[in-house]
Amino acid sequence: MLFDLHLTEFEMICAIILSLVLMMIGLLRFADRVKLTKSGLKTQATVTAINQMMKRNRISFSISLFFITLDGKRIDVTDGDSTPIPFHSVGDQINIIYNQNKPEEIVIVSKGMAIVEFLMIITGMVGLFYFLYLFLTQPN
Length: 140
What we know:
Keywords: Membrane, Transmembrane, Transmembrane helix. It is elongated and about 65 Å long. The mean pLDDT is 87. It has helices spanning 9-39, 111-137; strands at 41-55, 58-68, 74-78, 93-98, 106-108. It is 41% helix and 29% strand. By secondary structure, the protein is of the alpha+beta class. The longest helix has 31 residues, at 9-39. A hairpin with a 7-residue loop joins strand 4 (93-98) and strand 5 (106-108). The protein has one domain (9-137).
């Protein structure tokens, strides 16, 4: 076996659930990105603030930005995604896609976030299949 882990049934079930959750979060984020990319409008936004917060006893950063909609309305929004390091600075121009019906709903056009979502899906799938295999083949 690749990794000879000695896990209890409870630990394996927890690992299966965590893998499933990770995979589902990645899939939902990817689906939202694809949906908005197909139906949304692309524009430039300006970063207005870098927000620092504590998440699970770690510092993370999100950005606030504004953009002008197709009909000329200014929209101020804080991106829901956070990162361990700030990738943008105040004043940066970034590409976004927004929902014309709900302009507060945005996606930052970024290869980095697409890669993170892909890795979440793959890691979740590998973990799910691996721990499910361990659970189903363990001796009684």
